[in-house]
Amino acid sequence: MSDPIEPLGGETVFKGKTFSVAVERFRHHDGEQVEREVVRRQDAAAIVAYDDECVWLVRQPREAILRFTLELPAGKLDVEGESPLQTAQRELGEEIGKSARHWQAVISYFSSSGYSDEQVHIFAATGLRDVDAEPDPGERIEIVAWPLADLDAAIEACEDAKTVIGLQWLAAARRTP
Amino acid sequence: MSDPIEPLGGETVFKGKTFSVAVERFRHHDGEQVEREVVRRQDAAAIVAYDDECVWLVRQPREAILRFTLELPAGKLDVEGESPLQTAQRELGEEIGKSARHWQAVISYFSSSGYSDEQVHIFAATGLRDVDAEPDPGERIEIVAWPLADLDAAIEACEDAKTVIGLQWLAAARRTP
User: Fold this and answer.
1) What's the half-sphere exposure (Cβ side, CA atoms, 13 Å) at A132?
2) Is B106 within 8 Å of B21 (Cβ atoms)?
């Protein structure tokens, strides 16, 4: 069942600032052709940044779902030539005002592989220290230092995929040192 | 920071079979208006179906990312009037050929809240038994009975958000009965 899927091209039907949409055709190994509507979007990097007491989260507006959500700091890979790790390091400074001595790749996942190619790379960051950072004035971001003692409550309170995944990982990592 | 976000309307720029795209405006509490490109898509339900030995997964083609992925059985809430739980129950029959005596809501999350309103509702299903089901002939789905003893390897092997979240939850639930 893991035969290759051959892309046959398609048509871009929307080209936006943050993603585009294409209607594309693909050929399966047995010759059958299928058509799919696909969102093409830059990948993202997210950070599980924690010390002995807290994991550092952000609360920010998500207009698409009309609410403020509690999330891992994260950002799109929108700087030319930047690796996922470099994006994570930059975003930790911009959103939380910290740098980290130790970085670990946790997991990379696709947000919703049925219709989008967006992949998110999650890193753990420890050995945190404060840095001078100019927060992006356009971002309405509140920094939340969530106590690790209440990590299960953070998993309950968060609502987006990357944050659930990152905090579930952290809870498991703390159980099995 | 949790002030309401007021939707001001917008324009649908793509209307597809599985999602639409709109450029919409929103007003924040302080009066500032922002514009967002938003994917509007039906929500989905996914199932962590397991017995004493296995968790039941599917391997299926995801053309958008040109690969076959190992996933929780899942489906869109595309039947009028169906609740997320009912969709999960239907999909467990259609994709795995099983019904379950016990259902538990695990978590609901947004796939990628920066640009999409898609929410996925994950349920755990136990007390499984075989049912007569007609698999959808259009779906190239291979059923995979993954041994619970190798659950960590499944978390490594899967690549999509719902499956990572569901299997991390199962691993944690098995650690703390």
Assistant:
1) 0
2) no
- Residues A116, B142: C-beta atoms closer than 8 Å: no
A26 touches chain B (CB under 8 A): yes
A152 in contact with B at a CB cutoff of 8 Å? Answer: no
Q: What is the DSSP letter of A114?
A: T
Q: What is the pTM of this model?
A: 0.95
Amino acid at residue number B154? A
User: Given this model, what pLDDT does residue B140 score?
Assistant: 85
CA–CA dist A162, A120 (Å, integer): 7
Is residue A109 within 8 Å of B109, Cβ to Cβ?
no
* Chain B residues with beta carbon closer than 8 angstroms to that of A119: 65
Tokens of A100: 């980290």
ipTM strictly over 0.85?
Answer: yes
Which one of B27, B48, B66, B111 makes the best mutation probe of the A interface by having the most chain A beta carbons within 10 Å? B111
B67-109 pLDDT tens trace = 999 999 999 999 999 999 999 999 999 999 999 999 999 999 9
CA angle A24, A28, A29 (to 5 degrees): 155
CB of B101 within 8 A of CB of B89?
no
Residues A84-131 have pLDDT tens digits of 999 999 999 999 999 999 999 999 999 999 999 999 999 999 999 999
Give the per-residue pLDDT at A130.
96
- A2, A18, A34 ranked by CB distance to B37: nearest: A18
Q: How far apart are CA B32 and CA B38, in angstroms?
A: 19
